[in-house]
Amino acid sequence: MHQIVTEIDIAASPERVWSILMDFPAYPQWNPFIRSLSGVAKPGEKLRATIQPEERRAMTFRPRVLKAADQQELRWLGRLGFPGLFDGQHYFQLTALSNGYTRFTHGERFSGILVGVFISSMEAATKAGFVAMNAALKDRAEGEARDGSMHSEPSH
Known about the structure:
There is one protein chain. By secondary structure, the protein is an alpha+beta fold. It has helices at 14-22, 27-30, 115-146, and strands at 2-10, 34-38, 48-51, 59-61, 64-69, 73-80, 86-96, 102-111. It has a single domain, classed as START domain (Alpha-D-Glucose-1,6-Bisphosphate, Chain A, domain 4), CATH 3.30.530. Helices cover 29% and strands 36% of the residues. Strand 7 (86-96) and strand 8 form a beta hairpin. Helix 1 packs across helix 3 (115-146). This is SRPBCC domain-containing protein. It comes from Acidithiobacillus ferrianus.
C-alpha cells in the first residue's frame, strides 16, 4: 500500500467547503485537478471523474462511492482493470477547527500488485494535483466569504 496525504486550513465553515465539494457541475470552473465530476455522492453509486495532473493527459474513470458523510467525508474507490491490480481509495475529509476554519484533508491510498510499478512515475504529479486543488478550494471558499455571498462565521 502507498498513501499520498495533503492538508490545508480554510477560513470557512465545513458547511461552506462541503457545498463547494458537492457542487460537481462547477468543478470545471475552479478545480485544476479534478476537471469534471458527475454522479450521485451516495455509497454504492458510481461517479464519473476526469482528473488531469499538471502536464499529464486527462484520465476518466468510474469510481464507486464508499462514504458520503455530510460535511465530514467523501470517499471513493477507483480501479485500473480488475480488483487488486491498481486500486485507489480517494478521500476528502473536513474537520471543523475551533476558530471557525475547516481543515481539509485530501488523500489517496493506493493498493494492488501494480502500485510499485506505477507509483514512482505518478506520485509527484498526483501530489501536485492535490495541492493545486486544495489551494483552489481554499481560494473559492474564502473568496466567496470575503465577497459577502455567505454568512460570516463567528470568531471564537
